[in-house]
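haha ok so turns out i had the wrong file open the whole time. this is the CORRECT one, sorry everyone. sequence first:
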Amino acid sequence: NGRFIYSRSNDSKGFASGAELFINWNYEWLSGWISYGFLEAKEDSIGDNYGYIPRATDQTHTVSFVGNVDLGKSWAVRVKFLYGSGYPYTPSTFELVDENTNSWEQVIGRRNSARLPSYQRLDIRIGKRFHISRMKLEIFLEMINTLNRTNVYAYEWHWDDGNWNQDTIELLPLIPNFGFVLSY
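then structure:
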């Protein structure tokens, strides 16, 4: 799918560098944090004459936010937002080689020369805490990917009605989730 391509040989050199800014807060009824990360992860395959290219893990920008609001009477709401710029991938297309035999050839583009769309997810959770003897019980309802955003993991090709078509491999859709946490 063009997402990860490795030679399984020691034929590259590379580097990773970055920085993260992290701010957190904690008030009586409101707590949380926000972070921004910048990352650059590059590699150079020896002898390919391309120089440094982005590694498959090169997600340049990330932002995350978590906010917890105490509503009183042991009720709480948590909001979590995640953003990540698109990961690199290797694009490809298909070209017809021979019309008589209907032979096609996959043409692989330059390695990691394209980027997937950005990843964005908003999760919202409401929960209630109980104290039972020495145990703590939290019961919650949450919506994962509340905005039902299509987040792309990779692309793959399939043959359909005489043509090659590119499909999107998607990550989590909107998922309602109910659960509990029991601790001592």
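The chain has a mean pLDDT of 91.
again sry for the mixup
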